[in-house]
Amino acid sequence: MNIRLLSLGFGNVGQALARMLAEKEATLRDNYDLTFAFSGIYTRTTGALSFPDGLSAGQLVALGWPLTAASPGVVAGPADPLEFIHTCQADAVLELSALDPMTGQPATDYIRTALRSGRHVVTANKGPIAHAYRELWALAAANGVRLRFESTVMDGTPIFGMAEASLPATDFAGFRGLLNSTSNYVLSLMAQGQTVEEGIAAAQRVGVAEANPAYDLEGWDASVKATVLANVLMGADLRPADVRREGLGAEAMRKAQAALLPGQTLKQVVEATREADGAVTARVRLAALPPGDFFAHLSGMETAVTLHTDTMRDLTIVEGEGDPG
Amino acid sequence: MNIRLLSLGFGNVGQALARMLAEKEATLRDNYDLTFAFSGIYTRTTGALSFPDGLSAGQLVALGWPLTAASPGVVAGPADPLEFIHTCQADAVLELSALDPMTGQPATDYIRTALRSGRHVVTANKGPIAHAYRELWALAAANGVRLRFESTVMDGTPIFGMAEASLPATDFAGFRGLLNSTSNYVLSLMAQGQTVEEGIAAAQRVGVAEANPAYDLEGWDASVKATVLANVLMGADLRPADVRREGLGAEAMRKAQAALLPGQTLKQVVEATREADGAVTARVRLAALPPGDFFAHLSGMETAVTLHTDTMRDLTIVEGEGDPG
């Protein structure tokens, strides 16, 4: 089967995906009977670029990025990305656009348009899943296409795929996670004696933290991820603002670090629980973890989630070297 | 779809499975269109018991165990379990028999017979997979049936299912794991000041350790599990005796515990690596883990494996409260 791809956004994630598809071309063809061809790429800087003859991942990598409408095999597409989604000859849309995670836009509109026009969608954007999971899932089902979003939480660590394929008929009573790398990297440096400002500066130098770290330190990134996990795994219908954010931010981190007892480790922890009435509640907080809690011993660059299940008790997945969260 | 089951062995695992199928009956029917009926059970103590009209998991649980050929709805089956596998009206065989993990028998013969007679097989026995994975996998494919063995390592933690469903086109360069609960439980008690003999006695009291703990402490259990992981995930063709067992056993544990430096934690660790020539080597050893290694902070009852992948870097799965390994 040949799958024609339209990529919305083509930054680090898209370029890394193209390299991986190129490296795995023989394996995908021989073991999975899958070939891939890029039909188009839309980015805010290049606009819509259409590849009428298709470009293999290897060809795309070899051509280098950015391309322009003057590059060989490339023609300009329509100015409106929604029109490009409709007209581009693609089977699947890779939704990798820059987005506002607090609104999920414009990615949610891109995904709606792609699903309605009968394209499968793979998105790395957590905003649309946090804000519109039920609607988008139903839209995919109604149009007979798939919606995949594994890389919205923990950089593609197979949480949703594992739950779907390998934990059938399983109820998730809750979860606990270290989901924001920036916060936990800064906290790990503070535990080594650095100030919160030094920790933030170091995180920015290694490329973990954004220029404005408040989105991470104040728990919004973790709230969006908690919403995705709760809505997908636990059937909840939360929005990021429903996640209780308790005692977060740089000043709270400073105070909590100073108040730690010997042996304790401070982490930004996400928790979700199904209450007695069936409702799901989620919160993000700074937790002083005792030495017996193995989450205390994960470095700041690792992310982790423990799923509380009724079939397999507690299952924890740890991502070895977390990308910036 | 209704799936008729023949269970070979019906001890703790089989009875727990029946309870779980009974509890999940509505979910499996409504969400997966699956119903299950037991057609027969063979155990060494009861012999072959055939249920001509089928027994639902709920009926089986309600009847209680053990059943006899005089129980309602039960008739005696043939004395030879291989003949029972051939003649029992079953779609899938649950292979849960007591076995010798060093030879994989009699479970391997049961599985061969079941696959050849066109039955799917689900086995909890690691011996057959460690000793005959390639043969059994090919036999299943040739007969158009499935062979599943998730519970051979880490009590059903979805390792093989996750790799198959969620890590396509992924190469596993190696793995590291804490796979034997008995050894690591005894080591955790030794770290608290108990002697190795006291640790073994405590492990036996809580039901973790066998009467003869040598199989666990000397690394054979871990070697069998390492073989399963290496052969299935890495395409190796090892046998348990190929796994290097280095400095194991009660006396080695005593000496290594006494020689630990401050902050170090002793664990029985499994490692497998693909060498430069492509061959896979595996070993089990006592490792003095530094405080920065989060494996050091897992309790003795947890099991864990870190998979070294080329697509997702390091992924670790931790089982919360390990059953006796």
Task: Characterise this structure.
Two copies of one chain form a homodimer. In chain A, β10 and β11 form a beta hairpin. Helices cover 36% and strands 25% of the residues of chain A. Chain A has twelve helices and 13 strands. The first copy, chain A, has a seven-stranded mixed sheet with strand order 4-3-2-1-5-6-7, sandwiched between helices. In chain A, strands 9-11-10-8-12-13 form a six-stranded mixed sheet. By secondary structure, chain A is an alpha/beta fold. β13 (314-319) of chain A pairs antiparallel with β13 (314-319) of chain B, so a sheet runs across the interface.
Could you write a compact summary of the structure shown?
The structure is a homodimer of 325-residue chains. With 325 residues, chain A is α/β, with parallel strands linked by helices.
Features:
325 residues; 36% helix; homodimer; globular; seven-stranded mixed sheet
Which helices and strands occur, and which strands form pairs?
Two copies of one chain form a homodimer.
Chain A: E1 2-8, H1 12-23, H2 25-32, E2 35-43, E3 47-55, H3 57-63, E4 75-76, H4 81-87, E5 92-95, H5 107-116, E6 120-123, H6 126-142, E7 147-148, H7 160-166, E8 172-178, H8 181-191, H9 196-205, H10 214-217, H11 220-233, E9 244-246, H12 250-258, E10 265-274, E11 280-289, E12 303-309, E13 314-319
Parallel strand pairs in A: 1-2, 1-5, 5-6, 6-7, 9-11
Antiparallel strand pairs in A: 2-3, 3-4, 8-10, 8-12, 10-11, 12-13
Helix pairs in contact in A: 1-3, 4-5, 5-6, 6-11, 8-9
